[in-house]
Specification:
Blueprint (H helix, E strand, L loop, with lengths): L7 E3 L6 E3 L2 H22 L1
Antiparallel strand pairs: 1-2
Keywords: Membrane, Transmembrane, Transmembrane helix
Protein name: DUF5808 domain-containing protein
């Protein structure tokens, strides 16, 4: 529990932040899934 890993960090190329750990990738995946489900629900 005392592991201070950072989920998102600065990109090496470009601006902004990107996922650094599996937890960060999980957050990105959940956001993409939510966007897809919302889009399908609103258009149909």
């Amino acid at each position: 529990m005392n592991d201070p890993r950072i989920w998102f960090g600065p990109k090496r190329i470009g601006w902004g932040y990107g996922p650094r750990t599996w937890e960060g990738w999980a957050v990105v995946g959940l956001l993409v899934l939510a966007a897809v489900l919302l889009k399908r629900g609103l258009s149909g």
